[in-house]
Every structure is written in structure tokens, then in C-alpha cells.
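Note to self: keep these together.
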Amino acid sequence: MNERLRTALELAASRIPVLPLRAGKVPFGNCRRCADNACGGRPNMKNPGPCNCPGPCHAWAAATTAPHVISSGLWRRAWLQAEAVAYHPGGAGLTVVDLDNADAIAWARENLPTTQVVPTSRGEHWLYLGAMQSANAVRPGVDIKSTMAYARWLGFGTGTMAYLPDAVRTLVVSRPATVRPASPTITATAPAGSAECPHRTPTYLERGIAMAEQGITEATSGVHNTVYRTFLAVLSTHGRCGCLTDAHVARLFAAAQAKGESPRHCTDAWTNARTSLGL
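Structure:
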């Protein structure tokens, strides 16, 4: 039996929902039925139930403890290609405080209760008993992975797991603003022969930006591609008449960064989209 499949079954027997990760520590892509969001992006933040597809289709929502699912044909093929085992902390009633560097670890040792610690390639995972809302960048180098998120399985670590403290819960409530004003500025002029803005009303633009934010927020896999495609769609519709402002761009960047994208990735995606459209 494949080693990762064996690990997944052992975790599932302990009521820890698991899923396979492919190269780059990312989930497997959607099945044909769900490709390009044909399924409406379900499950998502509005409908956060489990994935009902026969294969590991919707990232964290595909995580399961059912051995017959984990060992099924499509899943077995995924395990053969997988590079790591992941789990859904919230589904196991756990919260992972992901500490990405030495400074973050030093902060945790000074401010959080001692608990079970799992070493990572760059830092540590601190595991607490109890689930909560997930969030990225609650502090420099600190992410919270619990409900509607996944974490790599790196072993049981050391120490005794403590109950989830208020000091962790409040990180999500009081996290500092980390989104910088967007650096790209829309400077493209309207195409030749289009002297007026074609949108007629600001409501059209506002609805387009809101739909773009929602599309990014509800992405459950392939976030990089979703962000790029969304930027491309916004620019193709609103990028040539000069209506877009830095405030609109900042909203799109904020939605992307809330899904884990770095400011650099946002800027690169925006620049690439502009270049593709000749803006």
C-alpha cells in the first residue's frame, strides 16, 4: 500500500479528515463536472459542506474520514501522485497556529500557552484543541488554520495539546491591516472611437468589482489561477475607459490576500493581466 495512503487511513481512523496534496503543497484540481467553476464553486463560504464528488475535488472540503472513500479508485490514483498528506484541522476539532519563521516562534513563546508543537521546514505548527475561523497573516509570519482550511500532516510533534485560548481567537478579530494601497494605477485610455465611458452608471462598475471580490473569496482551489482570471476579466471590462481607481484595485488585492496570496503575487497577476490585454 502507498505510504501516504496508509498514513491517510491511520489518520482517518483517528477521526482526522484527510486529503492528498500534489506538487507545490496544493490540492488536486477539480473534476470535469466542477472544472472552471461549472458547479458554482460549491462548497464554498456560503455553503461550507463537504465535497460530494467521487475524487478529491474541492480542497479542504474534500477531506474525509471515510476509509471506503479514501481507498476508492479515483482517490487511490490521487494518492499515487500525491507528494503529501493534508488534513482539515477544523473538521478534527483542532486549530493550527502556523508560525512561519523564528520571529513568529519567539512571539508565540512569549504570548501563547504551551501546547503540542510540530516542526515544519521553516517554523512550527502549534496545535490547540478547539476549532475557530481560519485567517492568514494575523501577525507577521502567523496564519491560523482551522475551519475551511487545510494543513500538511507532519506528524504528531511533541508536547501536550492545550485547549484553544482566547489569545488565539482574538488574533482574527484584532488582526492588523496588512493590505497596502495597490501600487498599479490604471493609466490606459479608452480605445480609439470610444470617447465616452460605456458603463453609463457607477453601479455597473461597483457590481463588477463586488462580483470579482466574491469570485476570489469563494475560490476553493487553484487560487493563483482564479486571481489572475478575475483580474483579467475586470481589466477586460473596465480597464480601458479609466474608471478603475486605486481603491478598486486595493479591494481586489485585499480579497486575494485574504485567500493567502502575497502582495507580490497580486502585483504580478495584475501586471500580467494588463500585459495580456495590452493595457
